[in-house]
Design brief:
Elements: H1 3-23, E1 32-36, H2 42-50, E2 55-58, H3 61-70, E3 77-80, H4 89-95, E4 98-102, H5 105-114, E5 122-127, H6 144-151, E6 157-163, H7 172-192, E7 200-202, H8 209-214, E8 219-222, H9 224-227
Parallel strand pairs: 1-2, 1-8, 2-3, 3-4, 4-5, 5-6, 6-7
Helix pairs in contact: 1-2, 4-5
The structure holds pyridoxal-5'-phosphate (PLP).
Length: 232
């Protein structure tokens, strides 16, 4: 895909984001765009960067580290959004600004311990299995409060909010339901943990941006609509 197309797509997705915010009666600019560049080359990341995009999400650690090295001269905020294996926590703690996919205490503790002292705390979201899908990542909704209370004590982490990947559904109204449930979980956490910087609802992808924004998403994670289909 040519750089020109990526830039056009960035402009189109930003327009879609802003019109969804407006339709929902939300403040312009109150949700941001995370460009998901998994399985896409560094040149595509650079093309999006040239269109003004600064935050990028990656799922596969080695692939991400290679791109970070190739693009080290760019001022990029890197988000890890893939499954976190225990033996990968050190490199995530050392090389990313955010991790959206914390779903157990062991991972949270390791990331906190392994975050280098010279870096600010790692921004984390707790991933929730909001649609209760069998064998999917994410904490069960009823585990959220207990995990949150522990995460809030970890000095190497900044606890920013919740993340979910709901089961795919077709209609706008069906898409809204799990996003609403995630927002309600965050509302409760904010009441119970007023000392934490819980400002992030990481929800919404290419096919459900509008429903996510309607339900309060502050960070949509968009791959296909920016970079095109991925080879599987
Ligand atoms: C791949 C991925 C996305 C982007 O999905 P698209 O449908 O391509 O927009 C968002 N979030 C996570 C966690 C992903 O793995």
């Amino acid at each position: 895909m040519s750089g020109h197309t990526v830039q056009d797509n960035i402009v189109a997705v930003r327009g879609r984001l802003e019109s969804a915010l407006q339709k929902a009666g939300r403040t312009p600019g109150s949700a941001s765009l995370l460009a998901v560049s998994k399985k896409k080359p560094a040149e595509d990341v650079q093309a999006a960067y040239e269109a003004g995009q600064r935050s990028f999400g990656e799922n596969y650690l080695q692939e991400a580290l290679d791109k970070q090295q190739a693009l080290s001269m760019l001022d990029i905020t890197w988000h890890f959004i893939g499954a976190v294996q225990s033996n990968k926590t050190r490199e995530i703690a050392e090389h990313f600004d955010w991790c959206h996919t914390v779903d157990r205490l062991k991972t949270a503790r390791r990331l906190s311990e392994q975050r280098p002292d010279h870096l600010p705390p790692l921004n984390v979201c707790l991933q929730v299995n909001i649609s209760r899908q069998e064998s999917k990542s994410g904490a069960a909704p009823e585990e959220v409060e207990t995990l949150a209370a522990e995460i809030a004590t970890l000095p190497g982490l900044s606890f920013r909010g919740l993340m979910a990947i709901p089961a795919p559904t077709v209609s706008f109204n069906e898409q809204r339901l799990p996003f609403r449930a995630l927002r309600e979980l965050l509302d409760t956490l904010r009441i119970n943990h007023p000392d934490q910087p819980l400002d992030t609802l990481s929800m919404g992808m290419s096919d459900d941006i509008d429903a996510a924004i309607t339900e309060g998403s502050t960070l949509v994670r968009v791959g296909t609509a920016i970079f095109g289909a991925r080879a599987s």
